[in-house]
């Protein structure tokens, strides 16, 4: 008597039912069969060697061909759960022929935990996929055959050569799909209510005849739309933030998948809504103040995604560095995917190549960005965490695997009404020589025209302003605010904000210098605006001093709030809670805020939080006041560099010079580590730059 073992379908059924059919009867039956028929039991529950597993066949031409999968309708098997069995077939097609001859739906999903897997039948063999993709295939399977593209199945993930070629086609794949099906996961708490509100919003837009989303900021239009919407007490409105906590919203690859898609549908459990309807609802919520961003949801990332999609769909040029900063907080399993995921959305010459390491890709990307940006040095303004002794990358190469919640000082906001910073002065249009040289090893960046700010050596540093103070508990919120207020106390001391001495540039009021430094020079450029900000700044400062004094008391935070209410300070308590929830504790944006912000918004810290979050105030030996990154130390030097909009804080690498002899290469040229960009009040528009005094320095 021979034993063939389970068929692939039976094996998949048993594997997927583990943990589901683990009842007493099933366990007893298995134990009995093992005792009475040990040989049959061993084969019936055979390990994978008895089962034919799927093996990829090489694509004839991976530069223009792709695999597609066809999901068969739900089968009707007898002794196992048919709903858990996914049966697919693969076929190879030429991508350019797909829209007409091979229409397909591209799936966008989050891979999830790689250790949570399920089995499916693929071309008569067994294939292992992640649980998340298995759920998506179950959801999208219909009564008839349907054709899809899913990266985990259609690309051989173990073949770097094929993966490299296929990832280069990702933009074309999603652009040529008939639609993109987004799988957000199984239904969760109130997710159905959120999508119901989204559908109601779509109907309200139709009834209100609104065609331009910019009209959402018109109070009359808002009132008309609200007439057709559920009441604000509807749980769907309050659950949007929780809905945006799903991992898919924070994934790097979805940016390209949604940006280029002709159309997209969001699926969560059994509910669905179109991308256009849902994104317009978020824009409306943003306009009326219902959409709040915190680090525990991905609202800020979703807003950035909507901007990138709008730019792409309207054929607007997208600067690659600006996009990288905008989406830096998004996650990717592999570091280099942060570059590859956006490279298809811009004119960027660096192609995906999985044979290279993260460090090699980050280095090549930095060099290409410098060349593309008219040989500018904006790449040096990318914020980073403090350098460690075991760092792999040179200090001038951004490590995109780290996500510091700090804004770059280079203002990428195109709607800004203020001129961009030009700390090294305006370069003549005829000057086409790059202001830098890169060593053959790609480890050393030579700045050909750099000038140390006289008296620009740092002699004092303050506490770092916390960058992500949000926490879900009141005591944690108050603790975070206490850290913020403690930092501001040291900032006042370092800057000498309360002194009657004039600033080094001759400005008579150090208070104004201090205020404008907190705002990174983005406001107060005319007398009317400056006076308005003085008033608002004084009100805000008085408010935080009161809370700083209260929170430093030995009383528990909850008791402090209760005492405020007891003594008739309810209005102040409400103001503080509103400040906590909608102001400072919102997630920091990754570019400078729009300069047209409402002046009154300084009361909730929105205008300056993007500049000071994650930074510390410093003072130089001649009295210059600046905002530097957290890694700034006493002894660091402020340098002005030709081709750079902002000054940089550099640290002399004296020990490194001795070991490597770098300082003897050319005219005593020294080696420096890039600490980061820095706002120095009074030098941001070329006031202190002297090109005739410039020389070469090396950044390592």
Provide key terms for this protein:
700 residues; alpha+beta; 4 domains; five-stranded mixed β-barrel; 15% strand; HET-domain-containing protein; membrane; HET
Descriptive account of the structure:
The protein is an alpha+beta fold and 700 residues long. Helix content is 37%, strand content 15%. A hairpin with a 2-residue loop joins strand 8 (264-268) and strand 9. The radius of gyration is 29 Å and the shape is globular.
Q: What's this model, at a glance?
A:
The chain is α+β, with helices and mostly antiparallel strands and 700 residues long. The strands form 2 sheets. It has a 9-stranded mixed β-sheet, sandwiched between helices. A 5-stranded mixed β-barrel has the order 11-14-15-16-18.
Q: In what order do the strands lie side by side in the largest sheet?
A: 5-4-2-1-6-3-7-8-9
* Radius of gyration of CA atoms, rounded to a whole number: 29 Å
Q: Mean of residue pLDDT? A: 81
The percent range for strand residues is 15-25%
**How many strand units?**
18
Low-confidence parts, pLDDT < 50 over ≥5 residues? 77-81, 412-416, 580-604, 662-668
Helix tally equals: 25
Helix content: 25-40%
Main beta sheet: strand number and arrangement? Answer: 9 strands, mixed
* Total domains: 4
In whole angstroms, how far apart are the ends? Answer: 73 Å
Backbone structural class: alpha+beta
Shape: globular
